[in-house]
Design brief:
Length: about 120
């Protein structure tokens, strides 16, 4: 089940992508499993077909799903690929955070405390 918040700062297509990626990573969606049609998903979520088309298009460009003409979209099913993408993104974000922490004069322990707070859902 996918849920989209139209009040979120994150665009609806990004919310859809993130949730499908998470479902692939968790094994909830498996290789060759059909996805809900773009039109049906748009109706279910009360978003435009353009939104679901963008989400599915991005997922296909990332190699996570594939399209069979006349049949729909299917999961490529590589949870390890999704995990690698997440890890790559985390590495980039951590490098950026480390660079900014150094520039701001934060110690490693201060940066670790901030990361722990974010990981545990605490606000600054």
């Amino acid at each position: 089940m996918i849920i989209v918040s139209l009040q979120s700062e994150v665009p609806a297509y990004e919310q859809i992508k993130a949730q499908i990626k998470a479902q692939i990573l968790s094994g909830e969606l498996t290789a060759d499993e059909p996805l809900t049609s773009m039109r049906q998903l748009a109706r279910d979520l009360r978003v435009s077909v353009i939104t679901t088309t963008r989400a599915y298009g991005d997922l296909e460009a990332e190699g996570l799903i594939y399209t069979v003409q006349g049949r729909g979209c299917f999961v490529k099913g590589n949870a390890e690929l999704v995990r690698e993408q997440y890890l790559r993104s985390i590495d980039e974000a951590l490098q950026t955070a480390a660079d900014k922490a150094k520039a701001a004069g934060l110690s490693l322990s201060e940066l670790q405390n901030k990361l722990e707070g974010k990981y545990n859902g605490q606000c600054d």
